């Protein structure tokens, strides 16, 4: 048992406990997190705009599975486990590509973009082999906020089965059905943002990627979430951010308050940029109360969304091991900002620095998770108490 009453204050103090250090280092716990959290929940994996034309595909990792995400000719975006049905080789062996079919490089089994097996050496002499049955295994897909979200739960369907599910109005109920997107992803957004419409005001779906940065962080994914959820560290490690948002120097993150809280720009600040200078034009549909404000939400298990008046910063996390996590961060702007090559460098630089500062802190913490000094874990101060709810959720999911 790693967890004992995570939401109960440590006796006689205003502190709450954290999980024990082993929760951040143990390979068996990490395996359970992969199985019970990342492989059972919806994960945002890539921007829809990155698969613009039929035949374009990318490979992504979710939990312990590698997935092909492809734009088909007839069926929009689909996703498959990247496992050849013949003898198991990876069908796509690079990060991205464009092709008319998906052909395995081992014995040349060839799959349509829609997943069915369409050709294989000597296949015509094996008429008993059902090409639908031996198609690539499909993965559940949703598009929302301009991202492709996937869930590998079940993922045992052949293309023929998933077509039947689609005709019935969605994935079939039962063990292979993914959790309701509305009751998980969208509900998280409305819990933390008031209502989904408040986020829709930013028009995230229609924005374009101005910049993507990829960070390899030598830290457990939970340290990164915990860091993102609190601002107790802001005064210490984020000089540029607290200059733009002075209230962060008091240590209360916008996620720490009970009400939906947008953090205000400083009086002299013109925009959410590294030096507080003006950004680009505000997104047209934001509400008056969203102007000159910063909001941050965590969509468990692997998305962080930050909104400011003129852009949206969207993080996706991919845990690789108990002590290594890849984080991809997109800076999203209005299409005309990208098309007219407006200067977004000062906007990108602000949160890029925040990212580097945060990830360095996480990396300096990770090695000490296995110290005897942290065998029983650490402590959460009152402005971090909301993290206890995350810890309890985590413990419930992995059955600790
Ligand atoms: S393993 Fe793919 S064709 Fe044989
Ligand atoms: Fe931070």
Automatic annotation (TrEMBL):
<dbReference type="Pfam" id="PF00355">
    <property type="entry name" value="Rieske"/>
</dbReference>
<keyword id="KW-0411">Iron-sulfur</keyword>
<dbReference type="Pfam" id="PF00848">
    <property type="entry name" value="Ring_hydroxyl_A"/>
</dbReference>
<dbReference type="GO" id="GO:0051537">
    <property type="term" value="F:2 iron, 2 sulfur cluster binding"/>
</dbReference>
<feature type="region of interest" description="Disordered">
    <location>
        <begin position="1"/>
        <end position="21"/>
    </location>
</feature>
<dbReference type="GO" id="GO:0016705">
    <property type="term" value="F:oxidoreductase activity, acting on paired donors, with incorporation or reduction of molecular oxygen"/>
</dbReference>
<keyword id="KW-0001">2Fe-2S</keyword>
<feature type="domain" description="Rieske">
    <location>
        <begin position="42"/>
        <end position="150"/>
    </location>
</feature>
<dbReference type="InterPro" id="IPR001663">
    <property type="entry name" value="Rng_hydr_dOase-A"/>
</dbReference>
<keyword id="KW-0560">Oxidoreductase</keyword>
<dbReference type="GO" id="GO:0005506">
    <property type="term" value="F:iron ion binding"/>
</dbReference>
<keyword id="KW-0408">Iron</keyword>
<dbReference type="InterPro" id="IPR017941">
    <property type="entry name" value="Rieske_2Fe-2S"/>
</dbReference>
<protein>
    <submittedName>
        <fullName>Rieske 2Fe-2S family protein</fullName>
    </submittedName>
</protein>
<dbReference type="InterPro" id="IPR015879">
    <property type="entry name" value="Ring_hydroxy_dOase_asu_C_dom"/>
</dbReference>
<feature type="region of interest" description="Disordered">
    <location>
        <begin position="162"/>
        <end position="181"/>
    </location>
</feature>
<keyword id="KW-0520">NAD</keyword>
<dbReference type="GO" id="GO:0004497">
    <property type="term" value="F:monooxygenase activity"/>
</dbReference>
<dbReference type="InterPro" id="IPR015881">
    <property type="entry name" value="ARHD_Rieske_2Fe_2S"/>
</dbReference>
<dbReference type="InterPro" id="IPR036922">
    <property type="entry name" value="Rieske_2Fe-2S_sf"/>
</dbReference>
<keyword id="KW-0479">Metal-binding</keyword>
């Amino acid at each position: 048992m790693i967890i004992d009453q995570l939401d109960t204050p440590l006796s006689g103090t205003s502190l709450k406990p954290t999980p024990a250090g082993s929760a951040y280092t143990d390979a068996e716990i990490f395996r359970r997190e992969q199985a019970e959290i990342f492989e059972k929940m919806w994960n945002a994996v890539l921007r829809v705009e990155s698969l613009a034309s039929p035949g374009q595909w990318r490979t992504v990792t979710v939990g312990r599975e590698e997935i092909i995400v492809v734009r088909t000719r007839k069926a929009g975006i689909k996703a498959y486990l990247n496992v050849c049905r013949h003898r198991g080789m990876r069908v796509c062996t690079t990060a991205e590509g464009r092709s008319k079919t998906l052909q395995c490089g081992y014995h040349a089994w060839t799959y349509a973009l829609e997943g069915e097996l369409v050709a294989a050496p000597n296949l015509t002499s094996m008429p008993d082999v059902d090409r639908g049955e031996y198609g690539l295994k499909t993965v559940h897909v949703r598009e929302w906020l301009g991202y492709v979200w996937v869930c590998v739960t079940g993922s045992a369907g052949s293309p023929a089965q998933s077509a039947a599910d689609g005709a019935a109005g969605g994935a079939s109920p039962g063990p292979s059905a993914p959790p309701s997107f509305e009751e998980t992803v969208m509900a998280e957004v409305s819990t933390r943002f008031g209502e989904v419409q408040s986020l829709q005001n930013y028009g995230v779906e229609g924005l374009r990627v101005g910049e993507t940065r990829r960070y390899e962080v030598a830290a457990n994914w939970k340290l990164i979430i915990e860091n993102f959820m609190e601002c107790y560290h802001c005064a210490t490690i984020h000089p540029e951010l607290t200059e733009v948002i002075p209230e962060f120097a008091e240590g209360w993150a916008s996620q720490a308050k009970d009400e939906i809280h947008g953090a205000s720009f400083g009086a002299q600040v013109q925009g959410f940029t590294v030096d507080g200078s003006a950004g680009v034009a505000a997104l047209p549909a934001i509400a008056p109360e969203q102007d000159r404000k910063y909001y941050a939400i965590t969509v468990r298990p692997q998305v962080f969304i930050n909104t400011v008046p003129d852009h949206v910063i969207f993080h996706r996390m991919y845990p690789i091991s108990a002590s290594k996590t890849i984080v991809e961060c997109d800076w999203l702007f209005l299409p005309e900002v990208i098309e007219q090559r407006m200067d977004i460098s000062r906007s990108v630089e602000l949160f890029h620095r925040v990212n580097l500062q945060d990830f360095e802190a996480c990396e300096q913490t990770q090695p000490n998770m296995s110290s005897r000094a942290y065998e029983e874990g650490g402590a959460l101060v009152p402005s971090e108490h909301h993290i206890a709810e995350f810890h309890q959720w985590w413990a419930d999911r992995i059955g600790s």
